[in-house]
Amino acid sequence: MNPADRRKYARMPMEVPAGLTDFREGRWTGQTVDVSPFGVKVSLKDADLSIKGGDSLRLTFTPPDKGPAIATLVSVVRADANGVAVAFVNLEMDGFRRLSALVDEYVRKNPRA
């Protein structure tokens, strides 16, 4: 089964600056690669393989919808040289609605994506 078929929600490409922090003062910067209302993939400027699946981090990024930054707790699903895939742990309802609206609009405009 294709991993995309198991997703709860479609993803859309989105490249905006993102920051990740851990609870030991670790900080990483990069760009989002794709996003859904349930998670994000982030490409890091400096691949840091000290980030492992299951790690809890704080993610901050600003979607291109003219709204405020989203800052939320995330859980690392996987980390490799291509970036870090994270699932939202406590995304506020406003952030969920904003990301859902962005992805829904993208899917409507790009039905084969």
Explain what the structure shows.
The protein has 113 residues and is of the alpha+beta class. The chain has one domain: Thrombin, subunit H, CATH 2.40.10.220. Helix content is 19%, strand content 41%. It has helices spanning 3-6, 93-109, and strands at 12-13, 17-21, 27-36, 39-44, 56-61, 70-80, 83-88. The protein has a six-stranded antiparallel beta barrel with strand order 2-3-4-7-6-5. Strand 6 and strand 7 form a beta hairpin. The longest helix is centred in the C-terminal third of the chain and has 17 residues, at 93-109. The protein is globular, with a radius of gyration of 14 Å.
Our estimate of the beta-strand percent is: 35-45%
Helix run count: 2
Q: What is the makeup of the main sheet?
A: 6 strands, antiparallel, barrel
Q: Regarding CATH, which class?
A: Mainly Beta
* Main sheet: strand order: 2-3-4-7-6-5
- Give helix and strand order, one letter per element, not per position: HEEEEEEEH
Total count of strands: 7
User: Pairing-aware structural class of the strands and helices?
Assistant: alpha+beta
Low-pLDDT parts are: none
Number of domains: 1
Q: Based on the coordinates given, report the CATH architecture.
A: Beta Barrel
Mean pLDDT figure: 90
Short précis:
This protein is of the alpha+beta class. 19% of the residues lie in helices and 41% in strands.
